[in-house]
Amino acid sequence: MPATPVRLDLSSPVRGPRGKPPRHFVDLTPDERVAAVTELGEKPFRAKQLATHYFTHLTADPAAMTDLPAASRDKLVEALFPRLLTNVRTQTADGGTTVKTLWHLFDNAKVESVLMRYSNRTTLCISSQAGCGLACAFCATGQMGLTRNLSTAEIVEQVREAARALQAGEVPGGPTRLSNVVFMGMGEPLANYKAIMATVRTLVAPDGLGLSARNVTVSTVGMVPAMRKLADEGIPVTLALSLHAPDDELRSELVPVNTRWDVDEALDAAHHYFEVTGRRVSIEYALIKDINDHAWRADLLGEKLNARGKGWVHCNPIPLNPVPNSKWTASDPRVEQEFVARLRAHGIPTTIRDTRGSDIDGACGQLAAEEDE
């Protein structure tokens, strides 16, 4: 394991040095939307019409807004729906049912999102930051450093674009709806807390995208104060804690934020989330050969989870996905099976996480917004 100290970037730049994204309809409250359309010389009810087009019909194309006067459409769209994302490259796997998209933002910052269609659901993995400042040792995004936070509209646009593609039947299997959103793409979601919560509210609002809060997952490497704040928001999203080691010595090397908030503090905050919301917490654990996959670590993890009660947690071991220039690899399947068996012996519900998209660098820990083929 490397002994070189790793510099964490826990700053929360509002937009970063690249400047502020242009104002977008999604960034505005309902009252602000009404004010914006009236400032443009339109009737207040146009704001609700625009919301219906964007959130229900999933479009910002003025040509599709046939219930608005032709003279108003271009003016409203130009002022309130600036292009925030540009599709630079799309890669597919699994017969086209896994789709990774590289987006350029307005300032040429880059992020990626991954859409996965299963037989019983569709899941979109979205990015909340361009890059990441938390420097997890096995994560390609973490090695990029932090460029900037994304705005609420930049995050929501990833969701709208995926929902539109599914609705239009662009993903094999026929037209369908987006059912699940996971904040497991580029960035540490809870380091961009304000935009994340505004996005979550937009995702679950009946007059927004209308998703079930239970089908929205917010992931974190263990930003304890924000985890506790999330518990008090009153929105029962699923919380996923990326733990990756049950002991502080190893976790501080794998996940440097552990030097700020240690394993027990992170688990206490996760258990607090369960107590407040009643929502079972997911523990994410990337299995790395000969690093964190020892049977005794599985036992230690089981003991620590059970020490906080029963029935509050579910564990998702994830075979490590390959990252360029990394010396680490996934655990041997027999070791993986033993790790899972040990956790289950402690009564911890445990499911190996699906690693779809690894062949297009679209799986957990692989997103790096590379443009070269």
TrEMBL record:
Active site: E112 (proton acceptor), C364 (s-methylcysteine intermediate)
Family assignment from sequence similarity: Belongs to the radical SAM superfamily. RlmN family.
Disordered: annotated segments: 1-22
Leader sequence segment: none
Name of the protein this chain belongs to: Probable dual-specificity RNA methyltransferase RlmN
GO cellular component: cytoplasm
Keywords: 4Fe-4S, Cytoplasm, Disulfide bond, Iron, Iron-sulfur, Metal-binding, Methyltransferase, rRNA processing, S-adenosyl-L-methionine, Transferase, tRNA processing
PROSITE patterns, per the entry: RADICAL_SAM
Cofactor: [4Fe-4S] cluster
